[in-house]
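ok so for the tutorial part 2 we go from a plain amino acid sequence to predicted structure tokens. step 1 is just haveing the sequence, like this:
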Amino acid sequence: MEIAASGYHNILLSGHPGTGKTMLAKRLPSILPDLTFEESIDITKIYSVSGLLKNSSSLITSRPFRSPHHTTSAAALTGGSKIPKPGEISLSHYGVLFLDELPEFKRNVLESLRQPMEDGQVTISRVNGTITYPSKFMFVAAMNPCPCGYLGDTRCHCTASEISKYKGRISGPLMDRIDIYIETPDVTYSDLNSAEVCETSAEIKKRVTATRNVQLARYKNEGIFFNSQLSPKQTTKYCILEKNAQDFVKTAFESLNLSARAYHKILKISRTIADMDGSDIIKLEHTAEAMQYRGYVNNL
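step 2 — the prediction. this is what the tokens look like for a chain of 300 residues:
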């Protein structure tokens, strides 16, 4: 989650019910870096157009967190009405769009995310005109590993075909746009009763902000703020790998039949991990860790 927050990477959480997937997603805004003035201006404009600005004389200073229900329509997600207004993806601009129970969303709703996730904007066409709204959101999703939620446990009675059909509700192209996949482990009794003091969100946010500042300095003339926003050309320019890291990525690309999009996402995640490690060059351990977070996506 810290890597996702540091580089603004899309992330999918999968695990049994009650393992903290939704809680982690809802706590994510607490570790995201503060908005820049430019980001704050953009978000405020969108909420003003939508009529959702609570105080018309002030800027929005916190990152949006939107969590539409799985019964939401494609129009509600992308935007619509006679005079096109921003939908959930634009209201999540520079913030988080969280889809809980991802496979429960209608197929056409999920497919409507593909173009905005790729382009960072959404174009809405209606009889009265066409308008384009920004949609540079961080996509966060949660799902169970099977219909009953207990895959790999004695409580699971799902058949192979049921599991395949359940996962098949999410298309390959959409999964290819997700950077990081995390399996949340079951919570044990000792976890719940542990007296160990964990680090706070504020402490994690300090590290995330430090990594974000590295990116702001690097991309000050590029018009982007995070590693996840790198174009293919910029990825080649800024994601410099040492020789053994290059060999590792080449082997993975050929053996796993990765797409060009997946290849660039691995480099971007590696860039974020290297930034967190304080390294200008992407090393083997950075690419190896990045590959681990793409395991599920590559096996779909």
